[in-house]
Amino acid sequence: MNNATPNEPAPLPDELAVRLRAVVGTLVRSARTVDRLASVPAAVLGLLDTGGPMTTADLAATRGVRHQTMAATVRELADAGFLAVRPDPDDARRKVLTLTREGKETLDADRRQRVGVLADALEEALDEEDRRALAHALDLIERISAGIRGGRSFAGEREFTTGSW
């Protein structure tokens, strides 16, 4: 049930931002407890799944890590049979990474498990009215995400009241 009262003042954006980040982070970490893959390898496989073939340098740049760090992750994923490494048809010195069938199946299995865990928790914790409220809240979160993706820079505009960022 919604605990807010109509006459209650709306929380400040900074307060909501801190709470939203913390709650979403906890939700993501909780749902990942059933994953077969650790978060970094899963993120790399996810990038290849959504972005298509990439080089190790592309992955490192996208994840914001050093090439050597990504190369170690790529090597582990290739050794596990989750990635295929092939020469770049345009430049034989470069290697192009693609998701193998086993990598895709493992990634999809983790995603299905997370959805199942979340669906079970929603069914257990929320009644019909709460699920409608959550659906509305998700629409709002999508709008927030679109605003961030839209290129608006928030850096330096605010002083945050927590060190948890």
Topology of this protein?
Layout lengths: L12 H19 L7 H13 L4 H8 L3 H13 L3 E6 L2 E9 L1 H25 L2 H22 L16
Antiparallel strand pairs: 1-2
CATH architecture: Orthogonal Bundle
Helix content: 55-70%
Q: Mean pLDDT score, rounded?
A: 89
CATH superfamily: Winged helix-like DNA-binding domain superfamily/Winged helix DNA-binding domain
Number of structural domains? 1
Quick one: how many beta strands? 2
CATH T-level fold name: Arc Repressor Mutant, subunit A
With strands numbered from the N-terminus, the spatial order across the biggest sheet is 1-2
CATH class: Mainly Alpha
Plain-language structure description:
Mean pLDDT is 89; it is low at 153-165. The protein has one domain (13-149): Arc Repressor Mutant, subunit A (Orthogonal Bundle). With 165 residues, it is mainly α. The chain has a two-stranded antiparallel sheet. It has 6 helices and 2 strands; from the N terminus they run ααααββαα. A hairpin with a 2-residue loop joins strand 1 (83-88) and strand 2. Helix 3 (56-63) crosses helix 4. It has helices at residues 13-31, 39-51, 56-63, 67-79, 101-125, 128-149, and strands spanning 83-88, 91-99. The longest helix is centred in the C-terminal third of the chain and has 25 residues, at 101-125.
